[in-house]
Amino acid sequence: MKISTRKLISLRHPSLNLWHRTVDCFTWNTLIRAYVQRTHQPSSPTHTPLSIFLRMRFHGVHIDYYTFPFLLQSVHSPPHLQLGRSIHSQVLVFGFSSDPFVQTSLISMYTACGDVGSAREVFDEMSQRDLPAWNSIVNANVKAGLLSVARELFVKMPSRNVVSWSSMLDGYVRWGKCEEALELFNQMMKENEVMPNEYTMAILLAACEQLGSLEHGKWAHACVYKLGMEINVVLGTSLIEMYAKCGSIVRARLVFENLGSKKDVRAWSAMISGLAKHGRWEDCLCLFSNMVDSGVTPDDITFLGVLSACVHGGLVSQGKDMFERMSKEFGISPKIQHYGCMIDLYGKAGLIDEAWDLLNTMPMKPDGLIWGALLSGARICGDIETCEIALNKIIEQDPTNSAAYVLLSNVYAKMGRWKDAGDIRNVMETKKVHKVPGRSSIEINANIQ
What we know:
Mean pLDDT: 87
Strand order of the largest sheet: 1-2
Radius of gyration: 27 Å
Helix content: 55-70%
Largest sheet: 2 strands, antiparallel
CATH architecture of one domain: Alpha Horseshoe
CATH class of one domain: Mainly Alpha
CATH superfamily of one domain: Tetratricopeptide repeat domain
Number of helices: 24
């Protein structure tokens, strides 16, 4: 189609100034894809993938079966669901509803928007279901927590690739079914039709980490070597996290050191957090200094590990210094978890007034984490009044928290307020809040019991 020689799109983005007399579909599709795949999104973009699509239609450019898949990639969260449905209607209008590429993209879009029902409808309407379509619908049910449905679809798949297995494994780990994940991985290895990749092994290591099973973790590590995989930064970070969680900080440190120059901020942060969890606060702060000296810029997760180390070591001045460096030196805005660490640090040091001051100046509303940290410090200091306030706030935010009711009742009893203590117990009975019994597991001969 011939058009007059004029700028089709704003001068403010040079890549969109098209002077061509004919603008074909390939060019417009490329523009849509480029905008979808931008790594740095501007705060107030001049154009969006949808606005480019609308201009494409305004100029009468022919749409092909690549246009909608690229456009649908821009719809990736529940607030965008209505937009996704509108694009779906355009798919129907332009006659691409039977194209497998478009249908698979629709399944992925509905999955990202949390509408697994619509994703299943699209899948059921497909006359020819290819492997990407099967993978997409399995992933849709995995993300929705419908693991039995996902497994049923997984079993029915005419063929599977590493994406299929990894998606199902990820579902089990994500929803806390780690033993099932180990069983599925064993099945994958026994069938010997599809070989796991680095992503699969990272999921397996996450399962071992959640179980806290060192023997299974060492077995997974051996599988990595047996499969001939290089320990890249992704696998290395997963191994560090797994060994640290399973109690072998020495093995975690060995993996960290063997990464050499491949270490990125994730690997450094994982090692720092691992040392903090093991109470190795001196090593943690030393490693943080080495990280900065090596030219690696820390992120919010790094500082969470550093502040946790300060809590373990009771290092109030160092903690305050690190908390200030976050924003002043590295431009990182503290999140609620960082405030929680600082309040915990002040509380355990007996500085309840400082903890209250920080809590009252937080830019966000305190949650259960914050009140729990304040409660912990107040109990150590014997500040009964602060304990009462914190527990009431915890119950206000989580009315089913049985431990908070029991602790509050005990606080009232300690204060001699027996009527209030009895009232709390009565409230528990009225609301049918029951104390959850404790549960623990132990690893015996590589079996979790």
